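Case study 2.
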Amino acid sequence: MQTGTLSHETSGTAARSLVRSEALQRILAFAALVILIVLFSLASPNFLQARNIEGIFLSTAVNGILAIGVTFVIVTGGIDLSIGTVMTFCAVITAKLVTEGGVSIPVGILGGILTGALAGYVNGTVISRMRVPPFVATLGMLYIAKGLSLILSELAPIYFERGSGFTDLATGVIVSIPGVIDIPNAVLIMFGAALIGSFILSRTLLGRYTFALGSNEEAARISGVNTAFWKIIVYTLTGLFSGLAGVVIAARLNSAQPSLGQGYELDAIAAVVIGGTSLSGGEGSIFGTVIGAFVISVLTNGLRILSVPQEWQMVLTGAIIIVAVFLDMFRRRR
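Prediction:
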């Protein structure tokens, strides 16, 4: 009896320590964001101009939505390298439905989002049923989605009709601070997606099983959890968020650009890691991911304003990712 009590107390202490560790990681990410804002504000008077802040918000929106979706996969201990090209594929599908299929914009949007969910479902099925490693399965989907985008678009951008109102979905404004800043609708969509994602991850059965898969998948399976089914659901949800990101980026550009997309997955995964989600699985939060997305956007925007060459921007971003992963590993070892 005493041994059982001791074991229970030890596990409870470990859990509390993990929670504190996750909170510390999010605090560090937020502190890094504040420091970057202060440094770039001092280095350039243009950084805090309203137009530049709106640009940061817009660039964060797409990456943030992708990062929110891939957070679920990474919490399970998996990875999804296809989210960027799936996003582009969904944008192409939306554009084809609206411009050539003759459907209404809402139906086209729904079609794009469901296409993303279908791609995620295929990823989840290949990984959980066929036992293909997530890295390989999603890398294959990356090329499939990229190829299909080029084929369907015939290697050319697909433009939406001007005046259709589709672009207002991303660049329109329904919330603003008068005389200070206008908040693009794309940002509101990202925050809405974050609230939904956070609710799912922290308050639903899917969220609990997502953490269980990442903490110890074999233990979850032995406990009676249908791990294959829930893993498929997780990847489908990630694909759904990729579809939403595809619709948003198509609205932002008022077109579907078939050559766009590859590389977005790296920024999204970087945002997730910077926000405190462990690549080993079992822990993470949507709130931290959103902070991480803003860190990436602020860093990229600030370096661009300071006229830092793009190649050096990539070097600095890569270094930050390495540091974030190292801190995660150090935190978990302790």
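The longest helix spans residues 2-43.
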